[in-house]
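One thing: can you check what follows?
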Amino acid sequence: MHRHVSLRWLYPGVILLLASFLSCIQPDNPQDLKEKTAKATEDAKRDAKAVAEGIREGWSRDKPLNLNTATKDQLLTLPGITGTEADRIIAERPYHETDELVSRHVLPKSKYDRIADLVKVK
């Protein structure tokens, strides 16, 4: 089962934090208020996305990555895997065993040994 992290629960907290921050400052004019609000909102959205990504990464960190379904971005999170290697892993699908990465010359054994415990096949 793949979990999806929704950012909707973060927005009310971000808005509340933003409102309390803005109530503490006295802008010189309405334009300053608009600019400061836009900047604070942009920062809050960026931070909320970073938190959600961290949560998503934490949930998946303990689970081996399925070589037959992983995206290129997911494969790039494996230690030492380059974009070219991720593309080769995807191109050689499907796999029946993880060590086929070595037997099919997709990865050298030294690289496979670094990720062997982090990947699986289904």
